[in-house]
Amino acid sequence: MINVPLSVLDLAPVAAGTTPGEALRHTTELARRTEQLGYNRFWVAEHHNMPGIASSAPAVLIAHLAAATSTIRVGSGGVMLPNHAPLVVAEQFGTLEALHPGRIDLGIGRAPGTDQMTALALRRTMEGLSAEAFPQELQHLMGYFAGDERLRITATPGRGDMPAIWLLGSSGFSAQLAGLLGLPFSFAHHFSAQNTDAALALYRENFRPSQWLDKPYAMVAVSAVCADTDERAEWLSWPSALSFIRLREGRPGPMPTPAEAAEYPYSDLEREFVLSRREGQAMGSPETVRQQLEALLRRTEADELMLTTQVYDIADRVHSFELIAEKVVGGLRREG
Q: How far is CA 101 from the centre of its chain?
């Protein structure tokens, strides 16, 4: 039984033959529909130098999505802190929280989410780009929201307008740090399934109660493609798989069509790679997806699941979330 809140992670995928503007409009359409369906939160991810992903400016997109919706929580999954000065992030998300109080999540990642050259172009200095600098950068960011006088700068908006802060991770570092700080933690199971159990254990073992949480709160992000049949879901899943193969080969581009993905001459190694990435994810008919999500919940004891659905057509993307809300869960409940 799936008895935890469900949320959405979207990358504003740019499909072949479409534009980034269309991708952003599709993400807005998805946010509105998932709000109607009762999903708990809607996050967008920061990526750069990737022609197939339009969510390169999360704060701007979140402002638009929050204005286009009214009740669903909206946030970043995440903002990659090495790419930005902490003061800039504090002012951006302080502005969002001031405009939409109680609805903004600031999910923070430790990796740049791009190549080193692009990261340097964003930050314009090597300072702050190393993983070792992350704890201090995070401390400064939270200090701006709290009005820490030692920083000698007042973030306006920012001070007194702190969104809900999450740490994101695909390994143990952020899991342990989130526990020590008493912050909620979201794990990227959708691309790092082999590290899920160990990271969640680290988070729970190191958790210290804080002003934000009395006990650990872990969310697990999982790829989910739900269609009317298992065969249809399989067909819809291959464009995302081919996109990832091309990204690994240094040839990123728009998401291919299902027909193009079906005709691609996959090597045995590529097929094995795709199948290994699907382990622990959710793909199939409503009954198949229910069984897969229930198994993931038993394994992780997650407090919330965040679903990411990367398929070519927006109608199929929306339909997947509709099927999960209506036939997998039988109606969603929203929590803070």
A: 21
